[in-house]
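Tutorial, part two.
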Amino acid sequence: MIKLNLEAKSKAYELIKQYLEENVSETLAEKINNGVKITKDNKTFINKKDLDGFWRFASEEARKTAEKGARGAAVDDATVYSWAIHYFEEDSIEGKLYNEDGTEYKSAPPKPATKTETKPQPKKPENNQATLFDLFSLDDNKKEEPEEIEPDDEELDDEEETEEIEKEYEQEQQKIEEKVEPQNVQIVATSTKKVVVDTNTGEVLSDEQIKKSFDKETMYMLYTILEGKMDMR
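Running the prediction step on this input gives:
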């Protein structure tokens, strides 16, 4: 029986090794024991396979045969043994790689990703054309301001005319008061009304005395101030 350089770590491994030793050809035994030369990345390596690699291969094959959604697959012994023959016989299946001097090949660790400095992109020209959305936004944020109502020209004229009349009336009243203050009479305001008093005698003049003592213009001015009424005929 052919002896194979395979390490059996468990009972299952032992069964696979036993099957291979009883069924492999001398050519396949040569491949298993000494490996096969392969070319990779323009370099020559020795490709050697072991039972650990086969077990990973068998597990993957079993997963492929499992029904969708199933957690496992039932595989008979004959299928597993056929997978073992195929795994060690197929040169395209890669196991452990060794350099030609017998040392194990270790691939170079991947280079850390270099941080590429991103250049600041030039600012795109701003689009100043207003869109519908911009217009809606402006309408929403715009505060309603009370409309300023300009006064009508006619209203201004009326107000100015009224102010002018009041001013003229005040001026006329002042003139009247100045004229109706002769040296011998004085208008005195009592608690109830205004009266004309003779400054020489202190006598309050009656309407009849006023009519006899002053002309019509003076009487008119006196009674305008006194807010009295009298017949001027």
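The radius of gyration is 64 Å. In part three we will examine how such features are distributed along the chain.
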